[in-house]
Amino acid sequence: MDSPRLERRRFLGTALGSGAAVIGAGVLPKTAAASGAGDAFAFEVTRSEADWRALLNDAEYKVLRENGTELPHTSPLVNETGEGTYCCKGCDLTIYESAWKVPLDIGWVFFSHSEPRTVLTSIDGNPPVGMGGQDGPGAMMEVHCRRCASHLGHLVVAQGKLVHCINGSALNYIRAGA
After folding, report:
1. Has this prediction a pTM greater than 0.85?
2. Rounded Cα gap, residues 11 and 17, in angstroms
3. pLDDT in tens, 101-112
4. What is the 3 state secondary structure string of the chain?
5. What is the C-alpha to C-alpha distance for residues 111 and 165, in angstroms, rounded to an integer?
6. C-beta of residue 41 within 8 angstroms of C-beta of residue 119
């Protein structure tokens, strides 16, 4: 049986196969996104590994700092329908509004777009089987918080829509009026 990470990568790879040409702009070099350092971009929020581990639980750390993927349908945010905002769990930057949530029953949280200038993309250095090199259209596009470099999810084409496919564990939800 395939791992959950591989299953999501297969889904994402299949979804990207039809939309890879649409999302080729604005790529952040992988080294800068992963480390929060480098010549390409200086992130506003940087922390030591110990500080990140103190802030996040193990599952959150795996997603936000190691580019992991949560299991499908495990985040309560998948079914959240209230009005509010979604912030990066790594730095509290408001990234998504509930009005932009796209209801897709695929297992993760989907948005049509983000707040302006809140996310950066990078090339996923671990494309799904058959998606890299000679076997497919190439690597996938990851979505990162522009303030702290935390990995949020991917840009994908799902059910004919270009969407942000986001790990719920990468977000804090703040209900309107709270």
Report:
1. no
2. 10
3. 999 999 999 999
4. CCCHHHHHHHHHHHHHHCCHHHHCCCEECHHHHHHCCCCCCCCCCCCCHHHHHHHCCHHHHHHHHHCCCCCCCCCHHHHCCCCEEEEECCCCCEEEEHHHECCCCCCCEEECCCCCCCEEEEECCCCCCCCCHHHCCCCCEEEEECCCCCEEEEEEEECCEEEEEECHHHEEEEECCC
5. 7
6. no
